[in-house]
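Handoff note, outgoing to incoming analyst
You'll be picking up this chain. Sequence as last confirmed:
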Amino acid sequence: MTWRFWWTVFLVFCCCCYAVPGNECYLTNIALNKPATQSSVSYQGFARRGVDGNLNPDYKAESCTATHLTDNNPWWQVDLEGVFSIDHVSVQNRLNYAHRLKDFIVEIAETNAIGQNGHLKNSKLCYNYTEAHVPSAELRTLVCPTDTVGRYLRITKSSGILTLCEVIVEGKPVSCLDTTCHKMPTIRQRDDQSVTEIVQELKKLMSGTGRRSHGEFSSRVISNVALNKPTTQSSTYNASYLAVDGIVDPPTCMSTSETGYQWWQVDLGSLYTITNISIQSNADKPGGLRNVTVEVSEQSMSDVSGHLLNAILCYRPAGSHGSSDDIITLPCLHGTTGRYLRLSRIVEIMDDVLTFCEVVVEVSRNECDLTNIALNKPATQSSLYSQGFARRGVDRNLNPIYTAKSCTETSLTDNNPWWQVDLEGVYSIDHVSVQNRLKFADRLKDFIVEISETNAIGQNGHLKNSKLCYNYTEAHVPSAELRTLACPTGTVGRYLRITKSSSILTLCEVIVEGKPVSCLDTTCHKMPTIRQRNGQSVAEIVQELKKLMSGTGRRCNFQKKWIDGGWRKHVYKVMNTSDACFPSKTDQWL
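Most recent structure output, in case you need it:
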């Protein structure tokens, strides 16, 4: 059979698939028929052909793009006409001259502006294709990294002709991201209720003996500050990071490999007041947590006994924890504060190693309130005048008189002055307040505040992949005033930099209001309380709970949600072959 026959069969199959009703939060081709452009055109290989839904690989069928032979830096681009979270990008090669589609990159950006390197400004790399050319007529699917978000998708080559027969971009609107809250656990519970208790309560609820009070679990949200944080351990059979990877069903478990004093440790990134620590045991090694000690410290160094220096003992359970798939919750003493958490025990024989599958570290609710996260953090600046050290900008001294040694200042000869603070952790930033000095107040104007997750500098002199918090173009900040600037929603980063294009930069105080990214689930207002679907067993709801603990649960599995002051029931059709959920056209009030 010819390729034309199989091409026809494929088209019929696609048409049938795309006829299924969709959900805006389900992955779809978000590039179809969107505006497309390219660097040049050859033989009517217009850019729009790359998103026309026509997967015919024969160039003569007018279904493929092509740039000009003399174009030394060819590119093709599509405007998705909205900001999306992108999971996959599929590119189809042409039938003839297939060798041309190789050595290309796929990048995503929220802006259409071009940087000095010729790529989209602040773009994220989806894929760097360095393999042999995409095979003739093949549709090759490329997986983007998690959290690849943007509006403009560009495919570029450094030489030769760029030709594409179809580009399929699978993604969903960023407004759907909060429905998964994938960055953190989302178990809603009552104050002081542990994970173990909520599992027991759910079992009662599922058996019909519990109370169906819809608002019962809504007053507190667990914030797992250990998720995906750096880990170490004394010896390794299974890697240490498996205990904070969020994968609990089926579980992935860490394991040490030696006898004697064995330990596992996680760096939470910042100081926290810890309330509970929940641990999922290894069902294959029920003694893996026998006589385990849980300790918390502000330091990562060990004392002569091998334990953390100046550690606070959170909990020391006796006996073996570990019946199949158990999740145990260990309450810490009131006021247990620290950054490093260590689990340790004495291993006597090799078959009795330290092992467990997941650690959830709960913090006090106050940890998720807005606070000044810049206070006394490491600060630097581009130059120094007199004794206007960078650290003065985060010393809590709001005296606006420069001679009181409370303000920073760069050199008069510094033509591109900047001041920067390392927040020593990744935070969601809401507001940045800057205080001007009493005299020479006219200097604090025409500045920008940017946030980035990296300390690296781009070619434009700014932090790489930075997000703009605020571009201050008004008259100078009034004398001695503390001016508060609001950052856009979703401004996340570790390094905050304030820059000017000329003159002296002076700051008497910088207050950065934010919260750890692990607290972002408090804004996930669309996440419902855990509820049972019709026909769902106790075992299934417990597994659902475990998925929610890791952030991998699906909101579409839940039957009720709060709308306009009442509980509205949705009838869902759940496809067994996918994660799609399709609500009915009618709602029923309960």
